[in-house]
Amino acid sequence: MKQRHTFHIPVMGVGFTIDSAVKIAHLGIDSVLSLNGQPLQEKMREFYCKKNHLKYEKINEKEEDFRAKRTTAFLNTINDLVKKKIESFLASPVQKKEEILECISLLPDSAKLKSEFLQLLNKQGDKKAIRQWISTNLHVGSIDVNIMTKLDRVNYEKGKPLPTEQNDAHAALRGFAKSELESSLVLSAGLNPRLFSYMEQFEDFYPDEDGYIKKKIILKVSDYRSALVQGKFLAMKGIWISEYRIESGLNCGGHAFATEGFLMGPILEEFKNQRENLYDTVFETLKTALETKNLAIPKNKLPFKFSAQGGVGTSEEHSFLLDYYKLDSIGWGSPFLLVPEVTNVDDNTMNLLIDAEEKDFYLSHISPIGVRFNSVKGTSKEIEREERISNMKPGSPCVEGNLALFNTEFSDKPLCLAARKYQDRKIKELKKQNLEASDFFKEYNKVVDKTCLCTGLINSVLIVNNLKTQKGNSGVSICPGPNMFYFKEVRTLKQMADHIYGRKDISFPQYRPHMFIKELKAYIDYLGELVQDFDASSKKEHNRLLGFSSNLITGVNYYEELFSNQPTFTPNKSLLTKELAEAVNRIQKLQAKISQLTAA
């Protein structure tokens, strides 16, 4: 391929990118859809079959292995629709001239490709040459899928737990493994030993002797150590990680998996410096495992990429990440929530994103799985939650149950913390404790703050496509990162691509800090929250906070050197230096506060 895109669309929520591949894969753009939530997959398969006059046979819940079958059928439908678009290019290049030119115009430095294609079109009758040119030069975007490994709920039948293979994440993995896709599975949210071991059952995950892997693994990580541990764990089973996707702990959308104060820049530097060591270490482990399994040892070098995502917002940042850290792709997430050609965001939520102030984008406690969650104030799901509380009926009806994972306080079968059934019982328990009013409401708010994300993160795609939502449970949750604030208009895909590649920048309404500075500030704010909740009697927590703050100082020192030595930062060096000095001052004040609290 002569040209391909250097950005990808990460998974966003459950529904926001569920069908992005249908919209943009033929344009050469990689995207990721979530496999958490097979009822939505079935709805969307029915929707696309009817829209494209394809045969649709419902996979109902009485069928054996229906969860995996729904996933397989949905992915095959998406794959078929993308293939048909590409086939139409090859079959009728003259009639599809404008669409092909659109593909070319989105690419970085596409002028040469465009002139080549137009020259071929002018050679009347040479359709074979045109088809060959299209096949050689136009890259098809990958239809990648994401499994959040923590969301591996046990499923039940007639009150009895089903075998582990019927767990949500296991069924999703099996559904992908049995699909026709040649793409990647993105694993996020950490190591799940049972799920990772389950991959061994599917031959599509193994490399052949030429190094080809039909279904590759992309591992989403927040630091190098995690990458090495998980890479070796999977390699011991004969599974190769084709791409390590480094994500900012706090300067991103969705669930936020904060590091212990380790910042994006230093983390990327370590990956850059350890690239060959990571490859060699993991590959040696893989070779041993493949030999043990009597499987082919690849003769060619296996695919091995690094990518990053979390808070990137300008072409300068995009180019610097690619060039300095030697990355293969950059994830652009939240800004694409304002691009209807790519994502599914209903009008009400889109207007909310556009009108929201910077303070409205916040790191919430609304997720039922107990992990901080990026959100924006004023969503229709939040309004729905508050109305239930005012009507003395806090909690949501638990229909999907995808996040009923861990809590067995009131039942042998886990309950979702956002469910009405759980919140009602928990509030009754609080009332029996005879707490002081202030203490009671503090604990009460912790309970009722949890929101039903199962429906909140899929309702937008249903609304956009005029599909039915659950009565009384139709509110939308959305999970943009802090970077969302600076994008204030609905944009076309072409406008976003031009912005990413520096052809025509999108102007911001006010000063936007560099992505590294924005993340640094987010971590300092996060440390401030930890200090506020600090239990002075815990020596372990005391050491943790000191270590966290020390890691931040180390990160600042790294940025001071980076900003001084790299020419790309020269025009803004004085401002960046000032922002780093302010950051150090804030960190030192928090360190002093930690010491004071400990002494007290």
Shape: globular
**Could you tell me the number of beta strands?**
12
Strand content: 5-15%
The class by helix and strand makeup works out as: alpha/beta
| Helical proportion, percent range | 40-55%
As a whole number of angstroms, the C-alpha radius of gyration is 25 Å
Tell me, rounded to a whole number, the average pLDDT. Answer: 95
Continuous helix count: 22
Extract low-pLDDT stretches. none
Rounded to the nearest angstrom, the distance between the terminal CA atoms is 65 Å
The biggest sheet amounts to: 8 strands, parallel, barrel
Strand order of the largest sheet: 1-2-3-6-7-8-9-10
Give an account of the 3D structure.
This protein is α/β, with parallel strands linked by helices and 600 residues long. It has helices at 20-24, 38-51, 66-91, 97-106, 111-122, 127-137, 168-177, 193-198, 224-235, 264-273, 275-292, 315-324, 347-355, 380-390, 420-431, 437-448, 453-456, 459-464, 493-500, 515-532, 539-565, 573-599; strands spanning 7-9, 30-34, 143-148, 156-157, 160-161, 184-188, 216-221, 241-247, 305-309, 329-331, 361-364, 373-376. 46% of the residues lie in helices and 9% in strands. The chain has an eight-stranded parallel β-barrel, surrounded by four helices. Strands 4-5 form a two-stranded antiparallel sheet. Strands 11-12 form a two-stranded antiparallel ribbon. β6 (184-188), α8 and β7 form a beta-alpha-beta unit. α10 (264-273) crosses α11 and α15 (420-431) runs antiparallel to α16 (437-448). The longest helix has 27 residues, at 539-565. It is globular and about 85 Å long.
